[in-house]
Amino acid sequence: MTGPRSTLREVALGRRRLTFARASLYGFVVLAVLSWAYILVGVDSGLGDLFSHRAWGNAGHFVRQLLGLEAGLVDGGRPAFLEASRWAETGKLAYKTLLMSVLAMSIAGVGVLLTFLPAARNVSNGELGGRSSFGLGALYYAIRLVFAFTRAVPELVWAMVIVFLLSPGVLPGAIALGLHNYGIVGKLSAEVVENMDPGPARALRSAGAGNLQMLAYGIIPQALPQFLTYLLYRWEVVIRTTVVVGFVSAGGLGREFRLSLSYFQYTDVALIIVWYLALVIAVDLLSAGLRRLIRSG
């Protein structure tokens, strides 16, 4: 017979039991404390420079140059954001940047649609009602390896390689962003299929449906909304990453941003930042609206 004391003892023992989640939390706290200890105590951490009068003075000079309140080394005269011609020129670059992001997600989306089903373990081993084979198993590992490789290489590295193969412009940046996001969206979409309810697909298979019918009516309708959601989420990230690939002459606002910084044209930098902010807000709002449509549909 168990009484209140034994119940309390069991609860106390359960609280003291070290679970994986609790061990992970403890490990994170220890790493955080050690990291901050190195920053605060380390000789070359640079923490003292953060609070130095010189650092804040340089920051103030830079902000005033961005706003056109103080002339830089080369940038002088009227600020770029007060010139209509500069708005028009950078607006064309912003349009190219938007095209780069859309083209990148189109490349990633088409590639994932063609490969994410055989990259799901329950499709390759027949758990969803199909038949497993050596060919499907080999294809599963090959596509998973491609997913891992493409997402492991950063967008900037992809862009640096592709620019050597193609002429500088929007296309190399779009391919670089598309390759990197192909691996990310492909892995997430394949895991959606692995975690889905196998009931509808098995019911279709037992009713005599073929492979294409099972995919079209049992698997894709369940996986497609999540796939589109992941694609839209990554689009929001890609529109921010275009500035990175632009640093290696991949076109768009990123290339102009690097050139303006190199020539100390600080008001042009401020104008490009404004365009980037407008693009990010527009893509975030559009992506959120499309995701609501997907959920309601």
Secondary structure: elements and pairs:
Elements: H1 4-16, H2 20-41, H3 47-50, H4 53-66, H5 84-115, H6 121-124, H7 134-152, H8 155-165, H9 170-194, H10 199-206, H11 211-246, H12 252-262, H13 266-296
Description:
- The protein is mainly alpha-helical and 297 residues long.
- It has one domain (80-296): MetI-like (MetI-like fold, Orthogonal Bundle), CATH 1.10.3720.10.
- It has helices spanning 4-16, 20-41, 47-50, 53-66, 84-115, 121-124, 134-152, 155-165, 170-194, 199-206, 211-246, 252-262, 266-296.
- The termini are far apart.
Tell me the CATH architecture: Orthogonal Bundle
- Strand segment tally: 0
Number of domains: 1
Fraction of residues in H or I helices: over 70%
Q: Name the helix and strand elements from N-terminus to C-terminus, one letter apiece.
A: HHHHHHHHHHHHH
- Tell me the major beta sheet: none
Structural class: mainly alpha
List keywords for this structure.
13 helices; MetI-like fold; mainly alpha
